[in-house]
Description:
Bound molecules: s-citryldethia Coenzyme A
Distance between the termini: 49 Å
Oligomer: single chain
Largest sheet: 3 strands, antiparallel
Amino acid sequence: MSSESDSASGNNDYGKAKLFVNDKLVSEFDVVSDSMGSEIAILGSSLRADGIKNIGSPLSFYDPGYSSVASCSSDITYVKGDGDKGLLFYRGFPIEDLADSCDFMGVSYLLFYGDLPEKASLEEFGDDIKQYMILDEQIADFLNGYRRDAHPITIMHGITAALSSLYIDIDANDFSKREQIFKRVLAKMPTIAAMAYKYNVGKPFVPPRTDLSYAANFLNMMFSSSLDESEPNPVFVKALDKIFSLHADHEQNASTSTVRMVGSTQANPFSCLASGIAALSGPIHGGANEACLSMLEEIGDVANIDKYIAKAKDKEDSFRLMGFGHRVYRNYDPRAKIMRSICHEVLEQHEDIDPIFELALKLEEIALNDEYFIERNLYPNIDFYSGITLRAMGIPTNMFTTIFALGRMPGWFSQWSEIYEKGSSKICRPRQIYTGNLQKNINL
Length: 444
Ligand code: SDX
C-alpha cells in the first residue's frame, strides 16, 4: 500500500499545518499542493491517532457532504471552479479542445490509458469494443423481470449489477484484465440502455451494427425498428458523441466517489459501476437534466418565470432551479457553454424553435441577473442545456440520465482502475459524530 504522502505527491513547499486544541499542539501535518498549484491539501490521516496521543481523545474532521475533504489523489481529471473561469481537463487536455477535436472513443481511450491514441490504436480500440456489444441472452432475460414502465436508469442499474455474475474471476491487479473489462463495459452499456428504451416502448430490440460509430449505433438501436440500412441524423450523432464526451468524467462527484467507495472493498467492477449508476440517478445529481426539463415544462411560459424564481429563493419551499448551481463551479460550468452551442445546432434541425428553448434562454437571462443567484454563484450547469438538446433529438425525458451514465462510464471505470494503479488498497471508512443515547440498561 502506498504511503499517503506518496499517493498525494504534489509539491510540498507549503511547510506544515499545525493543529492546536485548547492551546495544546495536537498535530503537525504535511501540506501538499496539487500538480496545477491551484489547491493545497493537508495530509490529515494521523489526526485520530495524534488526538489519542496528545489529548487523550481520538479526533475527527467533521464535514458533512465532504465539501472540504480530498478523498483520494488522482491523475485523471482536473476541475477548477473558483476564480473567473471554470476549467475541466481530462488528463491535462481542456474539455473545449477535446470537444472540438476528439470523439467519445478517443476521450474514453484518453481517460483510461492516460494519453490520446494514435489513429491506428483508436481504430483497433473501437473495433475491439464493437465485437462485444451484443448482450448475453441470459442477461437480456433480466429485462422481463421489470415492469414495462420501469425507469431506464433502474433497468440499467440492475442489468449492470447482473453482469457481475457473468464476469466473475477478475484479477483487478492485472492491467490487461482491467483493460479487457473496460472494453466490455463500453461495449455493453449502450446496448443495455437501448434495450431498456425498447422494452419501455414494447418494440423489438435491434442489435448493434459494426458499420456504425458508437453514438450512431446507440441511436440506431434506440430508434430503428429493423436492421434497415438507414442511418441516424448525422447532426444528432455528432451532438450525442459530444454529449457523451462532456459527461465522461468530473473528478470526485457523488457517483464517482461512490464507485471508488465500493471499489475500495475490492468488489466486482460491474457492482462498482452499478453503485455509480444508483448514485447518479438522484435528481440533484445526474437526474437533474430530466428534472430540469420537467421544471421547464412546469413553468410553461415566460410569464411564470418570476413566480418560479421566487419559489427557488424561498427557504420554506423545497423547489430549486434544476440545472443551476454546482458544488464545484462557482462560475460558468465550461461544459454548459459547449452544451449550449450543441443545443443550438440540434435545434436548427427543426423548422420552428422549440418554445421550451426560448423559455430556457429567458430563465437563464433572468436568473443570471438576479442578486440571489449572483451572490451564491449559481450559474447554469451542463444539465441545463443537455435535457433540451436530447429532447430536440426525440429522446424521451426518462432516457436523459441513462445517457448521462453512458457518457460517464469511461470516467467511472478509469477512476476505479486507478485505485489498483496507485496501489491504494485502503478501504474507505469515514467516521461520525455520535449524537445518540448514552448507554442504557435493559430492565427486564
Ligand atoms: C451534476 O459534482 C459534480 O461534478 C456533479 C456533476 C458531474 O458532472 O458529475 O457536475 C453533475 O450533478 C451537476 C449538478 C446538477 N444538479 C442540479 O442542477 C440540481 C440543482 N442544483 C442544486 O441542487 C445544487 O446547486 C447542487 C446540488 C448542484 C450543489 O449544491 P451545493 O453545492 O451543496 O450547494 P448548497 O446546497 O450548499 O447551496 C448553496 C446555496 C443555498 O442557499 P443558502 O442556504 O446559502 O441561502 O445556494 C442555494 C442553496 O439553497 N442553491 C440553490 C440552488 N443551488 C443552490 N437555490 C436555488 N436553486 C438552485 N439550483
